Amino acid sequence: MKTCKTAWRILRANLPLLLGCLLGLCLIAGMLAMNVSQSYEDTSVTEYMPPRASVAIIDRDSVSGHSAGTAIRSYLEQSATIVKVEDTTDDIQDALTSGYADLVVIVPQGYADDFLAASRNGAAQAGATQNSAMPAIQFASNDDVSAPSAATTLLETQISGFVGSARTALASGVCDTTDDAFATVLDASHDNATPAITVQSADGNGTASDANDDNASRSSSATSASSLVFLGATTSMIYSLILTIAFGVTFVITAFQTPATMRRLRASAAPAHRIALGVLAVCCGIGIVAWLCCLLIALAFSASADGGLAAINPASLAMAVVSMLTFALMTVCFGFLLGQFGISAPAANGIINTVGLASAFLSGAWLPQWLMPAGVTAVAKLLPGWWYVAAIYDSFGGQGVMDDAPRVSSWASSTALLLLYSAVFICVGLAVNRLRVKRT
To answer: The domain at 53-191 falls in which architecture?
Structure first.
């Protein structure tokens, strides 16, 4: 009991630092997980929505009674916002300069008649091209000539395609007049549905797979927003777990390893194993408290996401929680090893921060594991952080191919490796402690 009280006094002196690191870093990890989940949902849309620009259509051929300008206006209403601009040089320049209109489409006078004549001549002369035979529709925009915007370029391409279809209708004899040709193409554009765009994504092996593949669709439906938040939060908390637990355990172990404390412990009537068990209990308590705080914060963020905690597979959640606890206890063992060397607080700060940052960067928590080069992966697998992140993702089906069913065998092997790291840290720490005792 006295050992526990002494350890608690040591922790209480450093409690503001430990709590600040733990809560601050965990909250940041949770907010990052929420943002990543929202980005994932936004990029999961399989239909491309082009940017919507403002277009002004000036029909100088309307006095002839033709409806070329009206047809183009009706066609662009599907993909652009139509604005009204007067047919004067000053009004056109003002609209473009102020951004009121991104693009001004000018139908020149006599366009319909010239269009009909050019289409018939093009049908009679096979060598005539559209650019040489067809009258031109004028475009005006405030874009840089060397780098036009995607919105205006898309609209110009759509208008060219619309006019080209009308020309084909006239040249093939399907329509006899310009108005009929534009009306026919306009009706066809309204009736045709927008074709689906096939989106490709990379699977866990780095190969491309269609988004409408059965496994991909099953994976996206099985992976809820709350599961993504929980995954992102628990994996991103690797740095906060290492920093908080290792610091706390190192403070306690180092305090008990000072020469003055060692002499007092040897003179004490309490058995040595009881003192060791007391210190061990306090160190494990640090790891369990930090694990609980991180877990509660991750669950809180997951509950606030779409679907809530009910959308998370209970088996996957339980496996992830066990892996998180195993990693926390492994970090306790790492702090125990570090404390056996009796290093100063600044030295411990440098070592723990270096190990924590390296584990976070190379574990796959901030960069997917399957995106890392082979050389980096070989080094990263030497650190326990890699297997912690792998265990968390295996709980939900694997990184990059998350599914409703957890990968039990892969999860068990990754978690077992964390236990192996714990045993190694304990054994090495006991060996270092024995050497120090002999020297003193």
So the answer is: 3-Layer(aba) Sandwich (3.40)
